[in-house]
Write a structure and sequence with these properties.
The chain has 8 helices and 12 strands. By secondary structure, the protein is α/β, with parallel strands linked by helices. It folds into 2 domains: about 120 residues, Response regulator (Rossmann fold), CATH 3.40.50.2300; about 100 residues, Orthogonal Bundle (Arc Repressor Mutant, subunit A).
Length: about 230
């Protein structure tokens, strides 16, 4: 696995964290190391990572809390818990939150690598997530070229519009939390940032009208959901 995949490794033990970063980097991954839960969330929001390896026992925010906050905005990113805990209840809690795998310390680097590779293969058919092209009903959303195409109709998007629509598209038909979206894209959840996001969502809804089946549904007080109505609705 050396296809430019970005890993977030959250580990509060500086020695183990340094070893993990060096080993996984040697195997071709780009690794962002965080030493506490808040730093892990900051890295997730800023570094556009493809998969997360989270220690459970971390300062400020534990791994379970970090995973819950990530899952509020991203239902698909692979999450592997890395922990000294081996109680069945902890493993069950991890999987209930949405973990893809659970590695108990002590472990060998070869075992961790095998689990990371397997998790990524299961999540991404070709080993690399396609974050640039999305089919939304009859619309093709090309994030890289910042365009929406439906038949002969081509609409160019601003970078902010692209970031917002990509978040919805990567969590298609899933609830995307409003406050977490503000933090991830606007880096701010103030009243004025919220009003700005509402303006961008209004613009996106206008663009998406080229396919009447496509909707950004407002879940009052919680967030949004990108959906495509079927022909029977």
């Amino acid at each position: 696995m050396n296809l430019g995949i970005k890993l977030l490794v959250a580990e509060d033990d500086p020695n183990l964290g340094t070893i993990l970063r060096a080993y996984l980097s040697q195997k071709g991954y780009t690794v962002y190391l965080a030493v506490d839960g808040q730093a892990a969330l900051d890295s997730y929001q800023n570094d556009d990572v493809d998969a997360c390896i989270l220690d459970i026992m971390m300062p400020i925010k534990d791994g379970f809390t970090v995973a819950k906050e990530i899952r509020r905005v991203d239902k698909r990113i692979p999450i592997i818990f890395l922990t000294a805990k081996n109680l069945e209840a902890d493993k069950l809690k991890g999987f209930e939150i949405g973990a893809d795998d659970y590695v108990t310390k002590p472990f060998s680097m070869e075992e961790l690598l095998a689990r990371v590779n397997a998790t990524i293969r299961r999540s991404f058919d070709d080993g690399k997530p396609d974050k640039n092209l999305f089919h939304i009903g009859d619309i093709m959303f090309d994030y890289g070229h910042q365009t929406l195409t439906c038949g002969e109709n081509v609409q160019r998007l601003t970078m902010k519009e692209c970031e917002l629509l990509r978040m919805f598209a990567m969590n298609f038909n899933q609830l995307v939390d409003r406050n977490s979206t503000l933090q991830k894209i606007w880096k701010d959840d103030s009243y004025f940032a919220a009003r700005s996001m509402d303006v961008y969502i209004t613009k996106l809804r206008k663009y998406l009208k080229v396919d009447p089946k496509v909707q950004i549904v407002n879940v009052h007080g919680v967030g949004f959901r990108l959906t495509v109505k079927n022909g029977n609705e």
